Input
Amino acid sequence: MKLHKALLILSALFVGSMLPRYAHAQIGEPRNQLSIGVNGGMVFNTMSFDPTIKQLSHKGKSFGVTLRYICEKYFTTVCAVQAEINYTQLGWEEDIMNASGQPLPDTYQRNMDYLQLPLLARLSWGKEKGGLMFFILLGPQLGYCMNETDKRSSEWTLAESGQPDRPNNVCQQYDLKIQNKLDYGLLGGLGLEFNTRKGQHFMLDGRYYYGLSDVFKNGKKDPFSRSSHSSICAKFTYLFNLFDE
Output
């Protein structure tokens, strides 16, 4: 089994092992709080290519719906499960140089629109009402590419072969459409939450996503052995309580 698949399974097992505790809290102080709301932010994405392609950070938006259930406080730790449905703009933007390493005026950007479904275990510390809390997030994330477009300069700098002049002659990505629309990986984050006494929650967090799947086929005869997402996201979330018993 490949290492990245093992990491995904371990992450899923970590979240799954906590679900029974949330559903039947018996060890710590019981909680029964369900909150729903919206989230939005910016995501900065690059692609892990092998062979390597030099890139700038691709900037996109991310927004969606958040559902959170808190069921237990174990000593000072408040435990919860958080699920989201997000629309996220991913992709890559190339920092193009020629085979000699000199910058070129050529530009290229691939935009990919994803529907993402993170399922996260959440641990937090601080004041549950009328104060601040610090929290961490960890869990698997699934995504599906709904659309892709690209932008390129009107003219290419060509090598003697007639192909675009690129380091190590890596230019196959320009004509490749996404071959694996299903994306999966691991998501982790840190953040702060301000809770009001009226059951409102304002959260700001930073997240890192490590993709474990490839957007292009990675067989021996394929041009890339790796083509996965790697992104950093800054996100604001607003929640309100549906019930808090």
Residues 113 and 146 are 6 Å apart (CA to CA). The chain has one helix and nine strands. The mean pLDDT is 91.
